[in-house]
Amino acid sequence: MYAESGRRRYPRVPSKNTILVKKLSPPEMEGFTKTRVVGLGGCSFVADEAFGPGSYCDVLISVKKHVIKALCKVVYEILEDDGKIEVGSEFIQISDTDRQLLEVLWNEEQREERAL
Question: What is the pLDDT of residue 7?
Fold first, then answer.
């Protein structure tokens, strides 16, 4: 496992949205969790098992009354003290409509963060 380094191409904001994640390569895994951060280029979430950097997964992210669907690639995993794994993913394929919904979420979350 490795952590990412350098600056992000897309800024992210903390956001706890329900997400359904399905790993597409063996061993296949599927389950619900929460996002930790969401951005226009990807998201991170917590998993019980490693996906493996470079793995692909389908994600469905609940945002307000909508569901955003994306194909993601795992770019990093960080083992946490409690044994859980923070998984960072990059959106590989996402519709224009879903990207626009993400922009709305990102802008709202960023405004809330600034207000604190």
Answer: 56
To the nearest whole percent, how much of the chain has pLDDT over 70?
Answer: 86
Assigned CATH topology for domain 12-115: Thrombin, subunit H (2.40.10)
Domain extent listing, the chain: 12-115
Checking DSSP bridges between strand 12-14 and strand 18-23, what pairing results, if any?
unpaired
Write out pLDDT tens, residues 88-112. Answer: 999 999 999 999 888 887 777 667 7
User: Do 51 and 57 form a contact (C-beta atoms < 8 A)?
Assistant: yes
Rounded Cα distance between 81 and 27, Å, is 24
The model's pTM is: 0.81
b vs e for 16-53, b when ≥16 Cβ sit within 10 Å of the residue's Cβ? ebebbbebeeeeebeeebebbbbbbbbbbbbbeeebee
What three-state secondary structure class fits 108? helix
